[in-house]
């Protein structure tokens, strides 16, 4: 009897149109989030009672109603391009990160009811964090609605300080421990990003929205205005600085998530700039108290949402704000989402390379196995090995030749003769080096034995007294720029396609070539100084606004994570979007000094100071502890505390041991 029922059930499931037989069709978008995602501030937003939350979630789904939150609006604009057939909209007003399981449960219940059985989505979007740091309570304090504001008469306005709010933001992004009295919930954004790996399909994307400034910059107010929507002029700078720091740290948390989780692409969309404050023109500014504000003031909602005196819509974006935000998000998705970010697992594909003594170059393949690269030797020094920026080629400069290895098929390689020093890929993914005549030579890695471009250096560079050979090497390149270093003098030089040069190191010289970085577009150069552990204040100098005629540039410096009095060493340096990805160590002892091996300590994201800024501590965001390098799911840990060697790992497996240098494939 049981067997008969089982067979009958199976046949029933296979019948056309039966819910059990339906499979998810097309791509799907999951819209999570808080009130800034649900559409709370839109006039007449439907209450949308949620059993999971046991309350009304105020959801502007745009599904059969005119009220359309940004997530729903963006979905409508891109669904045809990406073949999306479903959006599950479960954002809920008042939600904190700890409430995500409720939103997921609601989404999966709906999928089950429709017979798809979908448990993962191609794209997930949300805003979270404002409720965790209790921003609505802060606003109520500024409005003198909280009793704490009435400690004296007249009331004081905002209760929290800027320093207090910055600490709450640091809790949100996992940089400091949570203090229960200051923070709502126990979950952080990094923990949410980690959890989403079980919610997003391999190769999928996560779009994280920042928050707009709710009040216009008081410097732009009329001199006679003292309040905006009930908030004192003197309180607004704290609110805006908190908002700026919140967005900056969310951006850092998103960047760190991309480094931890290969196979899922995390995106940050900064709406504080676009669309809310695009520039200084009055018509392009839309916070509260502008000529066209998209943020509600104090808005009691009498009877419009099933409530009496419902004021939660206050200081939330209205429909104009959501519509403009939807357009920005849709544009970002169209331009940046590809749904092909699945991790490289092909056993024939290179994911990293590392050097072991004596001069043995090894590769790590997509299956996590390491093997020597036969027939290729390399010497220690990050300037002798490089991956192309598009990740297609690995280049090695050794023994008067450059070897190009196809990263997708390591057995496919070719060599070109070149008595030259250094190797780096420019913005066109062509390899550059400096020959002994003092010429920059540029090769196409895919074809040809001769340079596609030769750039004679017009200015003086170090040369051998006897042979006249150039004594410099290429240590970096960008689009139209080449970075040279003279080992003897320590000078760091940047040259353009015409051979004009600018000396970047008017003061201290870089530690060594591995601690030099060039941005993809070639407009910024960074280098680390202070390798001696007995010296205080190792720092990173950033050069930008480089002009060759006349030879000028602007510079700024940022100290290490421990400040200007710290002793330590930098272990790695690279540009990561608008930030710097930095390895830093102070916690080990070795033959290199009392401050530790290169590879111990941690990997950090550092903000880049504005041009002309004095040396400053900077904003530092820790990506991973006890690591020296990190890139998309791979990182290094110190082999020991007594040797300058690293092990390469993905967190569960050791992929390479005792490496003297490591290179990650982009």
UniProtKB/TrEMBL annotation:
Region forming the signal peptide: 1-21
Keyword Signal: yes
Active-site residues per Swiss-Prot or TrEMBL entry: 35 (nucleophile), 316
Gene3D superfamilies: SGNH hydrolase, YVTN repeat-like/Quinoprotein amine dehydrogenase
Alphabetized UniProt keyword annotations: Disulfide bond, Signal
Gene Ontology molecular-function annotations: hydrolase activity, acting on ester bonds
Entry protein name: Uncharacterized protein
SUPFAM superfamilies assigned: SGNH hydrolase, YVTN repeat-like/Quinoprotein amine dehydrogenase
GO biological process terms held by the UniProt record: lipid metabolic process
Residue pairs linked by disulfide bridges in the UniProt entry: 57-92, 142-158, 228-289
InterPro entries given in the database record: Quino_amine_DH_bsu, SEST-like, SGNH_hydro_sf, WD40/YVTN_repeat-like_dom_sf
């Amino acid at each position: 009897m049981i067997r008969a029922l089982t067979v009958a059930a199976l046949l029933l499931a296979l019948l056309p149109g039966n819910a059990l037989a339906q499979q998810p069709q097309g791509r799907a978008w999951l819209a999570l989030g808080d009130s800034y995602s649900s559409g709370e501030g839109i006039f007449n937003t439907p209450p949308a009672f949620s059993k999971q939350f046991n309350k009304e979630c105020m959801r502007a789904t745009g599904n059969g109603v005119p009220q359309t939150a940004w997530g729903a609006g963006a979905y409508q604009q891109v669904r045809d391009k990406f073949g999306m057939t479903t959006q599950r909209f479960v954002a809920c007003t008042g939600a904190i990160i700890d409430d995500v399981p409720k939103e997921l449960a609601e989404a999966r219940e709906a999928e089950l009811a429709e017979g798809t059985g979908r448990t993962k989505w191609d794209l997930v979007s949300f805003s979270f964090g404002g409720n965790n740091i209790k921003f609505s309570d802060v606003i109520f304090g500024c409005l003198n609605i909280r009793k704490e504001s009435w400690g004296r008469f007249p009331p004081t306005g905002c209760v929290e300080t800027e320093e207090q709010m910055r600490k709450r933001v640091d809790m949100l992004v996992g940089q400091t421990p949570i203090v229960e009295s200051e923070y709502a919930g126990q979950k952080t954004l990094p923990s949410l990003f980690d959890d989403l790996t079980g919610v997003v399909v391999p190769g999928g994307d996560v779009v994280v929205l920042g928050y707009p400034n709710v009040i216009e910059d008081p410097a732009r107010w009329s001199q006679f205005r003292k309040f905006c929507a009930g908030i004192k002029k003197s309180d607004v700078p704290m609110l805006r600085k908190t908002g700026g720091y919140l967005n900056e740290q969310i951006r850092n948390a998103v960047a760190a998530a991309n480094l931890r989780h290969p196979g899922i692409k995390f995106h940050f969309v900064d709406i504080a700039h676009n669309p809310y404050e695009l520039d200084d023109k009055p018509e392009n500014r839309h916070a509260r108290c502008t000529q066209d504000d998209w943020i509600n003031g104090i808005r009691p909602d009498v009877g419009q949402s099933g409530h009496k005196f419902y004021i939660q819509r206050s200081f939330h974006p209205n429909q104009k704000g959501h519509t403009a935000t939807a357009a920005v998000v849709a544009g970002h998705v169209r331009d940046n989402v590809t749904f092909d970010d699945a991790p490289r697992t092909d056993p024939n594909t290179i994911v990293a390379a590392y050097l072991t003594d004596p001069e043995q170059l090894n590769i790590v393949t997509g299956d996590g196995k390491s093997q020597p690269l036969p027939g290729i030797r390399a010497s220690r020094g990050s300037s002798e090995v490089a991956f192309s920026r598009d990740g297609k080629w690995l280049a090695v400069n050794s023994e008067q030749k450059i070897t190009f290895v196809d990263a997708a098929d390591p057995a496919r390689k070719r060599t070109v003769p070149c008595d030259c020093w250094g190797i780096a890929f420019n913005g066109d993914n062509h390899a550059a080096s400096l020959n002994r005549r003092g010429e920059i030579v540029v090769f196409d890695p895919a074809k040809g034995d001769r340079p596609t471009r030769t750039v004679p250096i017009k200015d003086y560079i170090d040369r051998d007294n006897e042979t006249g050979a150039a004594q410099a090497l290429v240590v970096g390149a960008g689009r139209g720029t080449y970075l040279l270093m003279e080992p003897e003098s320590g000078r760091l030089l940047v040259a353009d396609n015409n051979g004009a040069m600018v000396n970047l190191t008017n003061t201290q010289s870089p530690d060594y070539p591995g601690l030099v970085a060039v941005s993809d577009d070639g407009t910024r150069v960074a280098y680390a100084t202070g390798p001696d552990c007995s010296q205080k204040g190792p720092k990173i100098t950033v050069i930008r606004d480089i002009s060759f005629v006349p030879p000028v540039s602007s510079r700024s410096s940022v100290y290490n994570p421990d400040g200007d009095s710290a002793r330590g060493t930098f272990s790695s340096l690279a540009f990561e979007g608008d930030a710097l990805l930095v390895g830093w160590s102070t916690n080990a002892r070795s033959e290199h000094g009392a401050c530790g091996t290169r590879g111990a300590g941690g990997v950090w994201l550092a903000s880049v100071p504005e041009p002309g800024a004095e040396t400053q501590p900077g904003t530092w965001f820790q990506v991973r502890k006890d690591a020296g390098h990190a890139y998309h799911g791979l990182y290094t840990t110190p082999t020991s505390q007594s040797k300058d060697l690293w092990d390469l790992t993905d967190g569960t497996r050791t992929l390479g041991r005792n490496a003297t240098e490591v290179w990650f494939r982009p």
